[in-house]
């Protein structure tokens, strides 16, 4: 007798998938051959699937539920939250990258969370200024230290019940944070496995890990998610800046808030209700998108 069950794919490679079910993880699932994968680009971490379990305990993925979203680099489905990690120092905060991650998240309807790590490398005024910029926009923030284990509980509570993806440039401490959240994960930190104290092959596929109290999280290497979404057009950029929506209207419909006269956003920048540096980074991203259009 076969049972049909629903679950979430944790990872998959070499034709084997691990699928999280209500009552535990089915460690070895295969893919039903007749499954039409061209519509889905395959089965990836985060996919909600239904599987049948044979008497020997092996699972067979029978179908994939429609996806809420799908990211390409790395390939992962149904992400609820992108955690944009930035370090206070080593490396110094790259707020342009944070803004790009926020743009990508907003554009794909994924909730963003900003996580400021390495708060032990105390630069109080810097931490406060980053908080100031993003809190006023309305983004949730969390200040932690992976090495000191500081505030990891509040990070954990912000991850509860969701599928989250850690993103941010190399060295900000993403893998260190996962090791704090989940000591048994033993991810490579600074390219070195903590337990083995030597480098291992960096995994190229995403693996969702189960958090205590519910929720799944995936690490990504520093180079992922850095590209702006392919389909994002320059005209769409203003819409993913929540603070621009509160400015009232500009003289021109579809104002890009760049060189146009009577622009409500530029007025808000002059009056100090919109952060000048964040606005400058907006113009940089806008020009990057425009340059990209010219090249196509
Ligand atoms: N001082 C301090 N150092 C930290 C903290 N978190 C991580 N580090 C150090 O920062 C370095 C990089 O940490 P990783 O966790 O490998 O960074 P990552 O974001 O995973 O980097 P990639 O995998 O290259 O993208 C390591 O030497 C960590 O020990 C922290 O809270 N404070
Ligand atoms: Mg890492
Ligand atoms: Zn405008």
Structure description:
- It is a single chain.
- The chain has 6 helices and 15 strands.
- It is an alpha/beta fold and 296 residues long.
- The protein has 3 domains: 3-67, OB fold (Dihydrolipoamide Acetyltransferase, E2P) (Beta Barrel); 76-218, P-loop containing nucleotide triphosphate hydrolases (Rossmann fold, 3-Layer(aba) Sandwich), CATH 3.40.50.300; 234-295, Ribonucleotide Reductase Protein R1, domain 1.
- The protein has a 6-stranded mixed β-sheet with strand order 10-9-8-11-15-14, sandwiched between helices.
- A hairpin with a 2-residue loop joins β2 (16-21) and β3 (24-31).
- The radius of gyration is 21 Å and the shape is globular.
- The N and C termini lie far apart (55 Å).
Sheet-strand content, in percent, reads 15-25%
Report the CATH topology name of the largest domain: Rossmann fold
Please give the alpha-carbon distance between the first and last residues.
55 Å
Total domain modules: 3
SSE order and pairing:
Blueprint: E1 3-13, E2 16-21, E3 24-31, E4 48-53, E5 59-64, E6 70-71, E7 76-77, E8 81-87, H1 95-107, E9 111-117, H2 124-137, E10 141-143, H3 152-159, E11 163-167, H4 174-181, E12 188-189, E13 192-193, E14 209-210, E15 216-218, H5 264-271, H6 276-295
Parallel strand pairs: 3-5, 8-9, 8-11, 9-10, 11-15
Antiparallel strand pairs: 1-2, 1-4, 2-3, 4-5, 6-7, 12-13, 14-15
Helix pairs in contact: 1-6
The structure holds guanosine-5'-triphosphate (GTP), magnesium ion and zinc ion (ZN).
């Amino acid at each position: 007798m076969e049972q049909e069950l629903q679950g979430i794919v944790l990872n998959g490679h070499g034709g084997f998938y691990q699928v999280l079910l209500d009552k535990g993880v089915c460690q070895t699932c295969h893919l039903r051959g007749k499954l039409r994968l061209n519509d889905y680009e395959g089965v990836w971490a985060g996919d909600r699937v239904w599987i049948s379990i044979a008497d020997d305990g092996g699972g067979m993925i029978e179908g994939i539920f429609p996806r809420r979203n799908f990211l390409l680099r790395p390939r992962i489905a149904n992400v609820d939250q992108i955690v944009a990690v930035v370090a206070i120092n080593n490396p110094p905060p790259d707020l342009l990258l944070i803004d790009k991650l926020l743009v990508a998240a907003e554009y794909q309807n994924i909730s963003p969370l900003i996580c400021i790590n390495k708060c032990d490398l105390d630069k109080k005024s810097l931490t406060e200024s980053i908080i100031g910029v993003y809190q006023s926009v309305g983004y949730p923030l969390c200040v932690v230290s992976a090495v000191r284990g500081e505030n990891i509980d509040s990070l954990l509570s912000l991850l509860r019940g969701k599928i989250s993806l850690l993103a941010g440039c190399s060295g900000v401490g993403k893998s260190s944070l996962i090791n704090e959240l989940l000591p048994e994960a033993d991810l490579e930190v600074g390219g070195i496995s903590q337990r083995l104290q030597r480098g291992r092959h960096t995994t190229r596929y995403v693996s969702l890990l189960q958090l205590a109290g519910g929720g799944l999280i995936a690490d990504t290497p520093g180079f992922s998610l850095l590209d702006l979404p392919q389909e994002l057009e320059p005209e769409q950029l203003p819409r993913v800046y929540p603070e621009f929506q509160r400015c009232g209207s500009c003289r021109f419909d579809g104002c890009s808030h760049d060189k146009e006269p009577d622009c409500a956003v530029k007025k808000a920048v002059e009056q100090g209700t919109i952060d000048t540096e964040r606005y400058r980074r907006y113009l940089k991203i806008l020009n990057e998108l425009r340059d990209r259009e010219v090249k196509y």
